[in-house]
Specification:
This protein is α+β, with helices and mostly antiparallel strands. It has 3 helices and 5 strands; from the N terminus they run E-H-H-E-E-E-E-H.
């Protein structure tokens, strides 16, 4: 009698989708990134969601930065039902004098202070 096996996996082969925020769309327009460039960025994030090339902010690694096609792409990865959702938050030109992740940490600190003082 064959034993029924119960899988430890809930879903297999779930889809990865890529979204952009309005600020990311502003960056895309500001840098004049064409449809092909944006599709290439989305394709890379969809195919390789987590990479050894990623730089992360803080210890929880929620916000990730990866250089793709000459831009620092800032993104987060989450779940929505049976999909992995990669959300592009920004596309910035790399700056050797102030790496994107340091800039974002500094901006986050300012946002925290503003929130704390009700500004």
């Amino acid at each position: 009698m064959a034993e029924d096996r119960v899988s430890n996996l809930r879903f297999r082969g779930i889809d990865v989708v890529v979204d952009t925020t309005r600020p990311a769309e502003f960056d895309i327009a500001d840098h004049r990134l064409g449809t092909d460039a944006v599709e290439a960025i989305a394709s890379e994030l969809k195919e390789v969601t987590f990479s050894t090339r990623d730089r992360t902010l803080g210890t929880d690694a929620v916000v990730r930065v990866r250089e793709i096609r000459g831009f620092d792409v800032v993104y987060a990865v989450g779940r929505e039902d049976a999909k992995v959702v990669v959300t592009i938050a920004a596309a910035l030109r790399p700056n050797d004098n102030e790496p994107t992740e340091i800039l974002l940490e500094r901006l986050n600190a300012v946002a925290i202070l503003r929130s704390a003082f009700g500004l």
